[in-house]
């Protein structure tokens, strides 16, 4: 398949923001991320670059917020304002955000009708974090982010600490299953009326190793046919996109293959 064979209507342009710049993510090693070369790190130009290719959907990760720093609210608003399709934002939701941060997230959602917010396993302090987000944002605008690293479920340090303390006899094992069981997260999300899912394996991001989440997405699609599933990571060419979509994904996240930063 050549460049003309990319199914652009099914692609989701990925934008990773670090300290105000668009960076090229590689395997979750965030301290090593470098600016995206095709736009010299200008995130607005990267949106425009994707739009020029025919990509209309976007996944924007605020790496500052994901790492516990301040939300890049103004930049996120600028980027979303450039788009004309579906956008999902990972703002590092933990469930313990300040009132100021909550207001910024709600303002983003209210200002852009096609914008959704991710509650991801990597940053959620517990499954209750989903409940807290639903209290402020309509469940129809929320996506569960299932994060993996080399096939292993990736959860927050807070949740790992809870499990460690329970195993050490220092507390009740309230959320132990959520440390290892993706199905527990999906079931909880669906109970909250969250029916949208982003599946990522961080170890594959930026590595052009092929669609490593394909089998996982197929299993999820078979078990939960009502879910909307987006996935990506490791995408090399159009045939990888086709494979991922054949396994049950509605849309495919791409970055490296489009940006040329291989």
Average pLDDT confidence is 89
Order of helices and strands: EEEHEHHEHEHEEHHEHEHEH
DSSP strand tally: 11
Q: List the uncertain runs.
A: none
Estimate what percentage of residues fall within beta strands.
15-25%
Supply Rg: 17 Å
Global structural class: alpha/beta
State the end-to-end CA separation: 18 Å
Number of DSSP helical runs: 10
Helix content: 25-40%
Largest pleated sheet: 8 strands, parallel, barrel
Order of strands across the widest beta sheet?
1-4-5-6-7-9-10-11
C-alpha geometry: globular
Can you give a write-up of this model?
With 262 residues, the protein is an alpha/beta fold. The longest helix is centred in the middle third of the chain and has 13 residues, at 99-111. Strand 6, helix 5 (128-134) and strand 7 form a beta-alpha-beta unit. It has helices at 43-53, 63-66, 73-82, 99-111, 128-134, 157-167, 182-191, 214-223, 238-246, 256-259, and strands spanning 11-18, 21-24, 34-35, 57-62, 87-90, 115-120, 142-149, 152-153, 196-201, 228-232, 251-254. The model has no long low-confidence stretch (mean pLDDT 89). The protein has an 8-stranded parallel barrel with strand order 1-4-5-6-7-9-10-11, surrounded by 6 helices. It is globular. Helix 1 (43-53) packs parallel to helix 3 (73-82).
